[in-house]
Amino acid sequence: MKEYWQERLLKIEDLSERRLLRDVLLAAFTNIEDYTNGQLEAIKQRVFEESKLEYDKFNIYTSVVSVNDYDPINDFLFPMNVADLEELPIAAADLTEGLETGEKPTLGKLYFELDYLELREIEKTLSNRRFKGQLKTDSDVYDIEVSLSPFMGYIKQVERLYELYIDNNIPWKTVLHPSIWKFMDMRLETRIAFKKQEKVEEIIIQLEELDVYKQINQVPLWNVKVEPFKNQGFPMPAGDRVNYEHVLMLDEDTRGLEYLIDSCLEVDGVISIRREVDRLILVSSKSVISSWKLWTIFNPLEADLDTTNLLSNRKIESFIDNFASRSGRVVRTVGEVHRLANSFLAATSLRLVDIDLDVEEANFETYELNSFIKDEIRVDGDKKVMKLRFAAGGMMAFTRDIMSFLTSEIGLYFPEYRCVGELV
Fold first, then answer.
1. How many CB atoms lie within 10 A of CB 64?
2. What is the pLDDT of residue 170?
3. What span, in angstroms and rounded, lies between the C-alpha atoms of 278 and 298?
4. CA-based, 20 to 30 A from 341: which of 83, 198, 286, 296?
5. For the whole model, what pTM was predicted?
6. Per-residue pLDDT tens over the stretch 252-270
7. pLDDT of residue 411
8. Where exactly are the structural domains of the chain?
9. The pLDDT value given to residue 131
10. What SS3 class is residue 97?
11. pLDDT tens digits, residue range 176-215?
């Protein structure tokens, strides 16, 4: 509107009339227009804010660092397994017990920061392969052989997180944590008759051509902290007059903490969980004050976003994505697949360029991050294949892992397809 009036003013040849009209417009219409534009902008911002989902606060941020580089006083990222920070001596008696029961006791974990395809080719050769080494104790040195296999402990923790999201009525979003898929478990294959009270001091393994890729003492991190939590007040009778309400008062924090209750019906008798602004209310058959396990999710401050190798499953904020997520409906079009693929911050280095449906033999380059989610309706072998072809701005060790994250997330929206990815 301002441009229109300026153009009209310039067409008035009489300067005194032009000045008079300009003064009138400035005194009346300009202020009205500025006020109107300001109000429209406020309405748009309000609509955008109201369209946001509270569940977006449950984003998972991940990284991996060396034990020596971990900052124990940080308030954002925490080790998935606290024991990774401690160098606990291995008791030879524990190894002997495992060997006697027919198990292959673990000697520790190794980390391989390799591209997914490279790591997959290595894993194919490990089933019958043994590596030689030495196990030094406080009293002797033993020649040993070890085997390598994918370490599943961290993936089990993600699976438990998924179960807690469902129990706490929070929609699940695929966790992007590439490093946890790159750990290998070292297992002892040699039977040794250890002496009593022997303690393992050092393990030296020759991994041959794999030796240049291994990293030790690596710790996967995420913005989740697990702690016990006890409700302060006495349980009150619930509305059904059978069960009891346990109120867990939550601390206010500028970081914006979110909480998940770790419970199960068999042990804790939890029937439902209700979330309020400053508290969690559990309806349980327990009538006494109880201690619950609380999973706290920490949202990042601005400084936290500069963390090295930080990844997340956070989405790019947009009205369309907020509206689509709130509606709960999936639009089964090619355009919707493109929107989903471009809605994550981690996907800025990848661009979806093509989609192939009903591919019989798929030469895929991705893996399923949500393999623990069981589809009880559709048989996996009967699903059609949706192959998504991506172009990468540059290859990194995690590029195909991020592509796997995108295909896994899209697979949640299109469960009738088995979504796989490929770089072009």
1. 24
2. 87
3. 16
4. 296
5. 0.81
6. 665 668 888 887 655 667 8
7. 92
8. 2-51, 59-221, 224-297, 315-423
9. 95
10. helix
11. 999 999 999 999 988 887 777 788 888 899 999 999 999 9
Composition of the chain by helix, strand, coil, percent to 5: 35, 30, 35
Tokens for 324, please give them: 């689509």
pLDDT surpasses 50 at 51: no
Residues 6 or more apart from 163 whose CB is under 8 A from it?
Answer: none
Helices (H), 82-209: 92-100, 116-124, 153-167
Confidence of residue 395 (pLDDT cuts 50, 70, 90): confident
Place of tokens 């001596």: 89
With a CB cutoff of 8 Å and minimum separation 6, the contacts of 352 are 337, 338, 341, 342, 388, 389, 390, 406
**Sheet (strand 384-392) strand order:** 350-357, 384-392, 417-423
Q: Report angle CA 325, 330, 335 to the nearest 5 degrees.
A: 100
232 and 86 in contact (C-beta within 8 Å)?
A: no
Whole-number Å distance between alpha carbons of 178 and 221: 11
